[in-house]
Amino acid sequence: MDIGTISLVLMLALLVLLAIGMPLGFASAVLAVLVMVMKFEPQLLLNPMSFGDGILTGRPGAGPLNILSQKIYGLLTDYVLISIPLFIFMAALLERSGIAKDMYSSLNVWLNRTRGGIAIVTSIMAVIMAAMSGIIGGEVVLLGLIALPQMLRLGYNQNLAIGTICASGSLGTMIPPSIVLIIYGLITETSIKALFTAAFVPGFMLASMIIIYIVIRTQLNPDHAPLPDPVEGEPLGKEKAGLFAAFLNVLVIGFGAVLFLRALFFTVTGQNAPMEGEDPIFWGTPDYVPWFGAIVVIALALAFFAFGRERTKTGWDLGKGLVPPIVVIGVVLGSIYGGITGITEAAGMGAIAVLVIAIFKGEASWDLLWDSLMRTLKSTGTIIWVTIGAAALAGAYTLAGGPTYVANLIIGSDLPTMGILLTMMLILLFMGAFMDWVGIVLLIIPVFLPIILRLPIEEIGLIGELNPKYVSVWFGVLFCMNMQVSFLSPPFGPAAFYLKSVAPAHISLTDIFKGFLPFIGIQLLALSVMIIWPPIIEVLLD
């Protein structure tokens, strides 16, 4: 059977199976079998009794089936895949311990007298949580439990509250450590560390756009975000600014002390001795010891003589809820970018850090641990089954010659480079409205990426020229930005269903999707920036 017919049958069958509610993992696996039969043993469709006479059934475990099984086995045994359950476990612990609630309270102290402050706090909290675990569903649920009731109680516009929670809660797709980027890196054999680095600027650009929108909207419509009544004894104005500065000074003391002891340790043990052909340890050479020591001494002097012990203590008490998340982010991202560990080890260290913090806070229990492990098992199982099914379908379609057929079809259409890119974006947006991102990255990316790599590099984007070695990295970050939109896109935007599970009964799914509309516009604007200016991903790479 020719590949054009197979492609048409595959597309229609996938839409039908998803429409009747078949799970994506099983639907993909069924279609993988169908594609293999149509390509290599089509007589089975007309005469099932011929089983055993063809290339598939006549030699089980050999030929195309052997290639397909090796592909799936190689994907499932990749060491980096272990990081996914570890990040999910970390997110489950964060969701059920008091760490996230304390962080929200601390942020709220500093911004509660700002117009739209609760919504801004929600966005900032989402960014911090994304940098800790990168799990979208848990973030939306947690923000829905903590922030939504408070915003509704204070009289915030319902659409603003809903959109802020879901758009901010989906930032884990973009901000490292993102599981979407991990899966993309595994499938395309792209450096996951490079993907993480490249995603920083676009991810924080999107977060900044959301916060700027909240500020502008609440300034233009003050009734959308009423200010809470002042609490007796609450610090205001310059007093609050002074307390915040004192808190930041404590963070400088702690951070500087850690760096000082690290550089001193490397110096005493001789591990930072210059080696020919090797880069020096980042911030770990003897030159840094006096600098970090001086920073700690100056910060201590400010704490005792400028801010005073009482103000420093009060500032610490008000802001200490931010310290555990900062520690977790430092452990996860610091160990990756400091060259200490790989992605998987960093995920394990982060999970242990969250568990240790919960123990010290007195919030750890066997019930918390068991519940987190069960949620990890369920979420990981879902991802793995989808991965197996989608990898089987992608592999079968590749063996049938699908990627080459689609590539020739798109390139042969005589569309300009920007037209090809926009066509791909429309396809991804359409698929994202009906399909889980795991299936999309496994099914679509192996087809699209080879086409992107064949496009003239000078025609990609309108501003600046992308470095050829970063094309796959750029497309990975662009894909993640596209998946941001899919989390809010009706009819199956998962963020809506996550929020609905914890929202008050009077908020319907229709209300939730209505609240998404301006935030989908913001996401599409960020997506446009990445298409127009591809070198944005190189800001931290070079």
Summary, kept brief:
With 542 residues, this protein is mostly helical. Helix content is 71%, strand content 0%.
Q: Number of helix segments?
A: 24
- Separation of the first and last Cα atoms: 48 Å
Question: Helical percent range?
Answer: over 70%
Unreliable stretches covering 5 or more consecutive residues: none
Shape descriptor reads: globular
DSSP strand count: 0
What letter string, H or E per element, gives the SSE order? HHHHHHHHHHHHHHHHHHHHHHHH
**Secondary-structure-derived class:** mainly alpha
Key structural traits:
single chain, 542 residues, mainly alpha, globular
Explain this structure.
- The protein is mostly helical.
- Helix content is 71%, strand content 0%.
- The protein contains 24 helices and no strands.
- The protein has helices spanning 3-19, 24-40, 43-46, 63-76, 83-96, 99-111, 117-132, 136-153, 158-169, 179-188, 192-220, 237-269, 288-307, 309-319, 323-337, 343-360, 366-399, 402-411, 417-432, 437-443, 445-454, 471-486, 494-500, 509-532.
- The longest helix has 34 residues, at 366-399.
- It is globular, with a radius of gyration of 26 Å.
- The model has no long low-confidence stretch (mean pLDDT 83).
